[in-house]
């Protein structure tokens, strides 16, 4: 199983990265927090990898920190949560906020994550509340876009991330418009979370 990859960034999107390792391009699925921590295309990146084996495919999931990977692996151990939903959960809340919500049984915070219903949130709390002792959150969470009206590169990245989380395109466009009216936050992660809060 692949547990770690280090190479050159060939492509990067809010939910995916293509990493060149010794001339081989690895397609790796990532959460928003890992995307925020990545340098520019052409730079070197090192990711901790979870290899998910299915009957018809081998899928790689990458994380910038050991804590993110550990939390992802705990999430997919919960009944009804697969890798895709686990990535959405990690993207929907900062790592520290997610751990706090689970430990404090904050169902309301969990159901605001796109794709997470009340029953799924309750299972997360029930099955993980006492299993997060080993997930120590660092002080700072590791920080195919469609075109929109007058969208810059950052707008497009945020739009892509919202749509990949299951937000309807019109709602995502409206959220971006409202955030821009208030003053665009500096950096992808702050911008993304501000827009996500408006489509919940």
What would you note in describing this structure?
The protein has helices spanning 32-37, 66-75, 83-92, 95-103, 107-111, 118-128, 153-164, 169-182, 188-199, and strands spanning 4-13, 16-21, 24-29, 44-53, 58-63. It is an alpha+beta fold and 200 residues long. It has three domains: 4-63, Nucleic acid-binding proteins (OB fold (Dihydrolipoamide Acetyltransferase, E2P), Beta Barrel); 66-128, Orthogonal Bundle (DNA polymerase, domain 1); 153-199. The protein has a five-stranded mixed β-barrel. The longest helix is centred in the last third of the chain and has 14 residues, at 169-182. The protein is globular and about 45 Å long. It starts with a strand and ends with a helix.
What's this model, at a glance?
The protein contains nine helices and five strands. With 200 residues, the chain is an alpha+beta fold.
Let me know the number of strands: 5
CATH architecture verdict of the largest domain: Orthogonal Bundle
Strand content: 15-25%
Mean pLDDT: 85
Rough shape? globular
Distance between the termini: 37 Å
Number of helical segments with 4 or more residues: 9
Radius of gyration: 17 Å
Question: Which structural category do the helix and sheet elements fall into?
Answer: alpha+beta
Q: State the name of the first-level CATH class of the largest domain.
A: Mainly Alpha
Tell me the major beta sheet.
Answer: 5 strands, mixed, barrel
